[in-house]
Design brief:
It is a single chain. With about 425 residues, the protein is mainly alpha-helical. It folds into 3 domains: about 190 residues, no CATH class; about 80 residues, no CATH class; about 80 residues, no CATH class. It contains 14 helices and 11 strands. The protein is flat, with a radius of gyration of 34 Å.
């Protein structure tokens, strides 16, 4: 089925280039006031500012970290517990991964509008430029500066998906001030390094010789970019650097570290999973990791709610039979193999476990002469003669000897002594 151009909403948009300019706190506040206007909210300046602050490496990296945690989790569609191969084929395609990424972006931008359609056997979609959407009235703006546009909630365009709260401006609104402070602090730090990081060259000339002064100035300026001061004899210039601890280069680094920490707490809920702390306590790091995992579970629920509720009718319109089924995240077992081995051995001491389980679980090749080796192992674990240990035929002796041998063999496979 071909794409129907007359009903594709993206074709109504006249795109404009991102307005990149120097930003400061005043411009952020002005953009915020414009976006929060009651009568005529405009997000153009705020979204342009978002594009600019996303150039910050720390902000982009923590956003990528949060998104990657969801994107690396496998989504499957099940009906009565059984997978649906037709829908799973769509799930494994590039458009689905791109869609999940755009859906997560809603958390940072505040609002997302998509239009879905069919291209051949595959589903596809367009992400509508956010600067061309007025969420308060549900209008598509042909030009980003328009005040009114096409109302898309009345069915003018098919298969439209809206995600986000109308007044939500996203986490980037809160992250932007920290990026601006850090960027301006970095500018001051660069100026500090330029002034005090290079030696200062001094030139002295005869106060009555103007030609010597001009020649000295020309020579000094041609020797490089470090600071220069030229003065006549019997005069002096002093550079007085404060010795206060809070006034050195460490002040700028501390400020940028603080801004990065605030950004990490905003996006990830913690700091120790991105940068080491002062004390480096492992227990504290595990607490921070737990907070991050709780946010991940919340993001997964956010995605599943969209897939199972908001997109259900749209998928049905496009030929995906989702009736009676649901999208879920497939949770893989993450227990450490050594810990699992210890647990399995403890269980094996209480209840019988089929030998094939050990071969399959721990990826051990099963020998061709398995039956023969099994008989040899049984013979080697016969009870000790009378007078040694607990006596002939004592079942406790047999169980203990066999259990100890199996445990030693098992942990020798992992290259360590049993616990």
């Amino acid at each position: 089925m071909a794409k129907q151009d007359k009903k594709i909403i993206i074709n109504q948009v006249v795109l404009s280039q991102v307005n990149r300019q120097n930003v400061d706190i005043d411009k952020w506040r002005s953009a915020l006031r414009s976006a929060e206007s009651i009568t005529s909210p405009k997000r153009i300046a705020l979204y342009d500012l978002y594009h600019d602050v996303l150039l910050d490496t720390h902000l982009s990296s923590v956003i990528l970290k949060r998104k990657t945690a969801v994107l690396n989790s496998q989504i499957v569609f099940q009906t009565d517990g059984d997978p649906d191969e037709t829908i799973d084929l769509q799930i494994s395609s590039p458009w689905f991964t791109r869609m999940i990424s755009n859906l997560i972006d809603t958390i940072f931008w505040g609002f997302t509008v998509m239009q879905f359609y069919k291209e051949g056997d595959w589903i596809n979609y367009d992400l509508i430029p956010r600067k061309h959407i007025r969420p308060d009235i549900g209008a598509l703006l042909k030009s980003q500066t328009d005040l009114t546009g096409i109302l898309y909630r009345d069915g003018a365009f098919p298969n439209i998906l809206e995600i986000g709260q109308i007044n939500d401006l996203g986490l980037l609104c809160k992250a932007a001030p920290w990026v601006i402070y850090k960027r301006n602090g970095m500018g001051d730090y660069a100026q500090f390094a330029e002034l005090f990081g290079q030696p200062i060259r001094e030139g002295i000339y005869d106060s009555f010789d103007d030609m010597a002064r001009e020649k000295l100035k020309q020579d000094m300026n041609g020797m490089g970019g470090s600071a220069v001061f030229i003065h006549p004899e019997n005069t002096q210039i002093k550079l007085i650097e404060t010795t206060q601890k809070s006034s050195g280069s460490g002040l700028y680094r501390d400020m940028m570290t603080f801004c990065n920490a605030e950004i990490s707490k905003l996006i990830l809920g913690n700091t120790l999973t991105t940068e080491p702390g002062d004390k480096g306590a492992r227990s504290l790091g595990e607490i921070h990791k737990d907070v991050e995992e709780q946010i991940l579970r919340q993001d997964k629920k956010f995605i599943l709610d969209i897939l199972n509720y908001n997109l259900s009718d749209i998928f049905a319109n496009l030929g995906m039979n989702t009736q009676g089924g649901e999208f879920i995240f497939y949770e893989k077992e993450t227990i450490d193999l050594k810990e699992k081995a210890l647990i399995d051995l403890q269980i094996a001491s209480k209840v019988p476990i089929d030998d094939d389980y050990w071969y399959e679980t721990y990826n051990i090749p099963k020998p061709e002469n398995y039956d023969e080796l099994k008989e040899e192992m049984k013979a080697s674990t016969q009870p000790s003669p009378p007078g040694r240990g607990q006596g002939e035929g004592d079942p406790r002796s047999k169980d203990q000897d066999e259990g100890a041998q199996n445990k030693n063999k098992f942990f020798s496979f992992f290259g360590e002594a049993p616990r």
